[in-house]
């Protein structure tokens, strides 16, 4: 029972030890046994489990033999032995050692390293076979290095959150990091329909106007269409050019090399690559080689920490009435609500929001200052919102002349 308790503590300690702590322990320790265990954590963990079960079985047999010295009834011997082993095993082998191993993982791993290594060597290749069988029967439990797998880690996070050992925000953050590896770039990207792009034949000053209006610091440069991405224009490069610090003749010469990625790529892998290459923006291509959208390092970060609001964002109230009768509306405001406010009828089959109505009228992505007259309303983008600089606030003005004509036409129709 004592051996079983020690091995239970060691088993818990191995799985509670993080990768970072394990590598730090290896660097600080000169123990060859510990180094060998950390190199093959899974096989050593399986050998610990094997020997723990072996010692527990041996203890059960010993208790049964001891009880048989006083009793002759086989069923009574079995019942008493089972009750005794269940009680002793629960307290002395299962609960206390496991809790101690989790709470003192580094200390337990160091103190039991020699014993664990010795037990592993006794089993020889049997341990490898056991590890292979265990991995086949329980996929996702642990990874190749013996550390917790994703599914097991998710389960631990959920349990910790339910038990109030981990607050909800921290649990969501950890879950987001775990899920990022299974998230495709396609689900994170800005779709091509929402991309703000520069035509290659634009002048430097017109390009600067678009940078100011959009609020972006990097904009893709296109040739014939959005599928013809020629590079990425950086605002800081454009400023240097306008001030004569660079000698580019056109935007194409000023553009930086573009990074293309498939839409099926893992968001976690892309985030690591962008960090290593010091790149902040990549163009996402579909299976046919066309432009599917773009993704930035900030987009990937938001998958972990959630949406990052701009410091200049204001109230999210959908409709705000001005003294002159006009409205300030968020892009997601319903066109039905706006129509009700102005006591008019707006019929659009394929759009439901004022932002969508403006985009349809412009046939492009609206930027700061974009304006259009539609259905007797003048829609003007007066503010951007969020890190992606999407439409934040739209000024909605009722055009009295259009409204009067509309009323007159209705009256004429009614007289007829």
From TrEMBL:
<dbReference type="Pfam" id="PF03471">
    <property type="entry name" value="CorC_HlyC"/>
</dbReference>
<dbReference type="InterPro" id="IPR002550">
    <property type="entry name" value="CNNM"/>
</dbReference>
<dbReference type="Pfam" id="PF01595">
    <property type="entry name" value="CNNM"/>
</dbReference>
<feature type="transmembrane region" description="Helical">
    <location>
        <begin position="74"/>
        <end position="95"/>
    </location>
</feature>
<dbReference type="Pfam" id="PF00571">
    <property type="entry name" value="CBS"/>
</dbReference>
<dbReference type="GO" id="GO:0050660">
    <property type="term" value="F:flavin adenine dinucleotide binding"/>
</dbReference>
<dbReference type="InterPro" id="IPR016169">
    <property type="entry name" value="FAD-bd_PCMH_sub2"/>
</dbReference>
<feature type="domain" description="CBS">
    <location>
        <begin position="254"/>
        <end position="311"/>
    </location>
</feature>
<keyword id="KW-1133">Transmembrane helix</keyword>
<keyword id="KW-0677">Repeat</keyword>
<feature type="domain" description="CBS">
    <location>
        <begin position="189"/>
        <end position="249"/>
    </location>
</feature>
<keyword id="KW-0472">Membrane</keyword>
<dbReference type="InterPro" id="IPR036318">
    <property type="entry name" value="FAD-bd_PCMH-like_sf"/>
</dbReference>
<dbReference type="InterPro" id="IPR005170">
    <property type="entry name" value="Transptr-assoc_dom"/>
</dbReference>
<keyword id="KW-1003">Cell membrane</keyword>
<keyword id="KW-0812">Transmembrane</keyword>
<protein>
    <submittedName>
        <fullName>HlyC/CorC family transporter</fullName>
    </submittedName>
</protein>
<comment type="similarity">
    <text>Belongs to the UPF0053 family.</text>
</comment>
<dbReference type="GO" id="GO:0005886">
    <property type="term" value="C:plasma membrane"/>
</dbReference>
<dbReference type="InterPro" id="IPR044751">
    <property type="entry name" value="Ion_transp-like_CBS"/>
</dbReference>
<keyword id="KW-0129">CBS domain</keyword>
<dbReference type="InterPro" id="IPR000644">
    <property type="entry name" value="CBS_dom"/>
</dbReference>
<dbReference type="InterPro" id="IPR046342">
    <property type="entry name" value="CBS_dom_sf"/>
</dbReference>
């Amino acid at each position: 029972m004592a051996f079983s308790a020690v091995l239970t503590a060691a088993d818990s300690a191995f799985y509670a030890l993080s990768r970072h702590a394990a590598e730090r322990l290896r660097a600080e320790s000169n123990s060859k046994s510990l180094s060998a265990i950390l190199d093959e954590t899974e096989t050593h963990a399986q050998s610990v489990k094997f020997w723990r079960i072996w010692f527990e079985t041996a203890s059960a047999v010993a208790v049964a033999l001891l009880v048989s010295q006083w009793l002759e009834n086989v069923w009574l011997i079995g019942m008493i032995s089972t009750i005794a082993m269940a009680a002793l095993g629960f307290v002395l082998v299962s609960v206390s050692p496991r809790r101690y191993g989790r709470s003192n993982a580094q200390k337990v791993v160091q103190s039991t390293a020699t014993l664990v290594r010795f037990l592993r060597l006794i089993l020889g290749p049997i341990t490898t076979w056991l590890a292979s069988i265990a991995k086949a029967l329980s996929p996702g439990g642990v990874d190749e290095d013996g550390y917790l797998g994703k599914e097991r880690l998710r389960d631990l996070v959920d349990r910790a959150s339910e038990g109030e050992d981990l607050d909800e925000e921290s649990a969501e953050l950890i879950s987001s990091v775990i899920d990022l590896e299974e998230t495709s770039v396609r689900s994170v990207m800005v779709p091509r329909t929402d991309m703000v792009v520069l035509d290659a034949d634009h002048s430097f000053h017109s390009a600067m106007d678009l940078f100011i209006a959009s609020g972006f610091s990097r904009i893709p440069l296109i040739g014939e269409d959005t599928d013809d991405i020629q590079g990425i224009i950086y605002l800081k490069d454009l400023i240097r050019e306008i001030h004569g610090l660079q000698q580019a003749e056109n935007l194409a010469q000023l553009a930086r090399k573009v990074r293309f990625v498939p839409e099926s790529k893992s968001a976690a892998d892309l985030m690591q690559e962008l960090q290593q290459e010091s790149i902040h923006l990549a163009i996402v291509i579909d299976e046919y080689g066309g432009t599917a959208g773009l993704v930035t390092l900030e987009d990937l970060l938001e998958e972990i920490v959630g949406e990052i609001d701009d410091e200049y964002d204001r109230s999210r109230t959908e409709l705000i009435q001005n003294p002159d009768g006009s409205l300030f509306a968020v892009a997601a405001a319903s066109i039905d609500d706006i129509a009700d406010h102005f006591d008019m009828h707006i019929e659009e089959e394929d759009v439901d929001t004022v932002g969508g109505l403006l985009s349809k009228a412009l046939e492009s992505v609206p930027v700061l200052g974009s304006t259009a007259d539609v259905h007797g309303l003048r829609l003007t983008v007066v503010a951007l919102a969020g890190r992606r600089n999407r439409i934040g606030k739209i000024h909605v003005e009722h055009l009295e002349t259009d409204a009067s004509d509309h009323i007159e036409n209705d009256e004429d129709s009614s007289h007829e």
